[in-house]
């Protein structure tokens, strides 16, 4: 069964409460989403592997630590996932970036695929799939299946808000994928929106609507 990490860092909680407010405009919403992604990246990379490295400081030689193991990739689910990419790259700048285009059909709530472009060596990387919202879980489960179909084996999923329905769907569909969740909300409404949520993340990031 996958691990579910719900963030308890006070800065993350504070910033999530801030962007939930309906009167926060596009510029601030986008900036704070990026900050949250960066803080969540810090939490989600706690268990990356390290190796010893001998270095020389201006004072003496010492054995320090550096990252080892798999190289990283960030894969946002378009559109709203794009809002998390810069924040992730601020901490893991050498990561490659792939893109998966999915939108949720407003009637059926089923994901519709329209784009997929991944780094050539994606299957050898540790991949962080990012999307601010995990609602029914249809979009993230489909995106992760697309990655698995292309041979990707090491996948983590990061979202800023999740509904319990989405977490359940992801655990059933992808029990091998650990989840990093900024805040776990109460339920979905009749239109598949997270309650209390923050509204439509894509529209709020890009100023559409
Ligand atoms: C939103 C969100 C997720 C999806 C979550 O995207 O960014 O991708 O809905 O819903 P689900 O868990 O029920 O699939 P949307 O389809 O609105 O597209 P957008 O990012 O282009 O606005
Ligand atoms: N997508 C969003 O952007 N918001 C929700 O609450 C659910 C899906």
TrEMBL record:
<comment type="similarity">
    <text>Belongs to the UPRTase family.</text>
</comment>
<dbReference type="GO" id="GO:0006223">
    <property type="term" value="P:uracil salvage"/>
</dbReference>
<dbReference type="GO" id="GO:0005737">
    <property type="term" value="C:cytoplasm"/>
</dbReference>
<dbReference type="Pfam" id="PF14681">
    <property type="entry name" value="UPRTase"/>
</dbReference>
<protein>
    <recommendedName>
        <fullName>Uracil phosphoribosyltransferase</fullName>
        <ecNumber>2.4.2.9</ecNumber>
    </recommendedName>
</protein>
<feature type="binding site">
    <location>
        <position position="200"/>
    </location>
    <ligand>
        <name>5-phospho-alpha-D-ribose 1-diphosphate</name>
    </ligand>
</feature>
<keyword id="KW-0328">Glycosyltransferase</keyword>
<dbReference type="GO" id="GO:0004845">
    <property type="term" value="F:uracil phosphoribosyltransferase activity"/>
</dbReference>
<feature type="binding site">
    <location>
        <position position="79"/>
    </location>
    <ligand>
        <name>5-phospho-alpha-D-ribose 1-diphosphate</name>
    </ligand>
</feature>
<keyword id="KW-0342">GTP-binding</keyword>
<feature type="binding site">
    <location>
        <begin position="131"/>
        <end position="139"/>
    </location>
    <ligand>
        <name>5-phospho-alpha-D-ribose 1-diphosphate</name>
    </ligand>
</feature>
<dbReference type="InterPro" id="IPR000836">
    <property type="entry name" value="PRTase_dom"/>
</dbReference>
<dbReference type="InterPro" id="IPR005765">
    <property type="entry name" value="UPRT"/>
</dbReference>
<comment type="function">
    <text>Catalyzes the conversion of uracil and 5-phospho-alpha-D-ribose 1-diphosphate (PRPP) to UMP and diphosphate.</text>
</comment>
<dbReference type="InterPro" id="IPR050054">
    <property type="entry name" value="UPRTase/APRTase"/>
</dbReference>
<feature type="binding site">
    <location>
        <position position="104"/>
    </location>
    <ligand>
        <name>5-phospho-alpha-D-ribose 1-diphosphate</name>
    </ligand>
</feature>
<comment type="pathway">
    <text>Pyrimidine metabolism; UMP biosynthesis via salvage pathway; UMP from uracil: step 1/1.</text>
</comment>
<dbReference type="InterPro" id="IPR029057">
    <property type="entry name" value="PRTase-like"/>
</dbReference>
<feature type="domain" description="Phosphoribosyltransferase">
    <location>
        <begin position="6"/>
        <end position="208"/>
    </location>
</feature>
<dbReference type="GO" id="GO:0005525">
    <property type="term" value="F:GTP binding"/>
</dbReference>
<dbReference type="GO" id="GO:0044206">
    <property type="term" value="P:UMP salvage"/>
</dbReference>
<keyword id="KW-0460">Magnesium</keyword>
<dbReference type="InterPro" id="IPR034332">
    <property type="entry name" value="Upp_B"/>
</dbReference>
<dbReference type="GO" id="GO:0000287">
    <property type="term" value="F:magnesium ion binding"/>
</dbReference>
<feature type="binding site">
    <location>
        <position position="194"/>
    </location>
    <ligand>
        <name>uracil</name>
    </ligand>
</feature>
<feature type="binding site">
    <location>
        <begin position="199"/>
        <end position="201"/>
    </location>
    <ligand>
        <name>uracil</name>
    </ligand>
</feature>
<keyword id="KW-0808">Transferase</keyword>
<keyword id="KW-0547">Nucleotide-binding</keyword>
<keyword id="KW-0021">Allosteric enzyme</keyword>
